[in-house]
Amino acid sequence: MLVSSLLAAASATILNDTSLPPPDPFYAAVYNGTTLPPPEPFEEAMLASLDPLERQLLTSAKGENGVELFEGDIMLSDEQRESRKGASNLWPGSIYYVITSSSSADRNIILSAINHWRSRSCLRFYERPESYNSGPHLRFIRSSGCWSYVGRQERNTGQSISIGQGCNTLGIIAHEIGHAIGFWHEQSRRDRDSYISVLTENILSGKEHNFRVENNENALGVPYDLSSLMHYGGFSFSSNGQPTIVTNDVLLAGKIGQRNGLSHRDRHLANEMYRCSERCVCIPRCRNGGFVDRNCRCICPAGTYGMFCDRRYYSYYGRTCGNQRITRPGVIKSRYFPSLYPPNEHCIWKVTAPTGKRVRIQFHTARVIYRSGVRCPWDWIAVHTNSDSRPDRVACGSELQNTAFTTTGNRLVVEMHSFRERYASLQTGFNATITFV
Ligand SMILES: [Zn+2]
């Protein structure tokens, strides 16, 4: 049975994008058979590689003085606790900071994260000695976990930013500095329901308050950004390994939860909040989502060019791998199948059958890295049989091997996510046959 379906699969039309493997020496070696993949990584090392912000969301993390953190990594001031989220206090343009001796081992990466902000805004940062206590300032400490206050706190002894164990990456430190500068989480914007859906049935009981929207948020005209450094990932506070946040446009599902650095719109928002172009005499009119920076020039989002960002080559989020225009029966496969699939990808296959028909998918091989507890924290495959945006379930390991699904309507969506680190992706991915029934 399996053999015949595999043969059928081999002879059917290949519906994938057929781009060549990247010119990466590791992959070249695998293709040539000159090296074997390293042995299965240890669970502990794998867990350590996860985003500590995400891990923190699975526990009731505590911040300063044992106070429970809000939304996983925010210390609310007494005032903010009363009014829930409100407008945050801004800095006068200069921010003093102290890297305390507890954080001295992380000094270089903290300085890089400060520089990341400095070069992308008009904020000025000045270091002060550890004994400084003459006005509001940031105090980098190594406490448990990663957390920060939101906005400037009026105390001479400063406000702590904890860069705990595992939090010492540029993206996470920049995220925490973002809070201190005045940023809330992106998904608590009032217009978020137009872009994401919160799946309350998958949220840990008692943690629902972490998904509220803000009272007084002001987006200052900057559009919602799924790729914001300040956006939650899809599995925050999940009780069962299923997503708590999905994007309304499934093609953008891979954009949420990035921790690489500030997005274009994060940078835009900071420039608006701190009125970076205030002193410009001649303000250029930037187009296609560009904004004016402190040097009175347009900063253009990826995909646009020209002095005024007036030439646009692709949309803000770029293209999505996979194939989203499948209208015929055939075979779909993860990239480079049966060789190893690449890390750090989120590919989508969308199959549309003629009206009145349903889509059936028969997985043959389906192998990604294993499940850990209730979660698929690294790589996973999800099948949607009755909703473009909501998967039926998120699977990993070889759970989908030789399984089949039939849609309720005429649309099928398959998502495959691979972790950002290559060593998690030492598996072959999947191949599956699509038929219309
Ligand atoms: Zn945060």
Describe this structure in words.
Its EC number is 3.4.24.-. One of its GO terms (molecular function) is zinc ion binding. Residues 82-277 form the Peptidase M12A domain. Its cofactor is Zn(2+). With 437 residues, the chain is an alpha/beta fold. Among the domains are: 51-181, 3-Layer(aba) Sandwich (Collagenase (Catalytic Domain)); 324-436, Jelly Rolls. It contains eight helices and 21 strands. The chain has helices at 2-11, 25-32, 43-48, 52-56, 78-82, 107-118, 170-181, 264-273; strands spanning 74-75, 94-99, 124-127, 138-141, 146-149, 159-163, 196-198, 245-247, 291-292, 298-299, 304-305, 311-312, 322-326, 330-333, 345-352, 359-367, 380-384, 393-395, 404-406, 411-418, 429-436. Strands 1-5-6-4-2-3 form a six-stranded mixed beta sheet. A five-stranded mixed beta sheet has the order 13-15-20-17-18, with no helix packed on it. β11 and β12 (311-312) form a beta hairpin. α6 crosses α7 (170-181). It binds zinc ion (ZN). Zinc ion (ZN) binds at residues 73-74, 175, 179, 185.
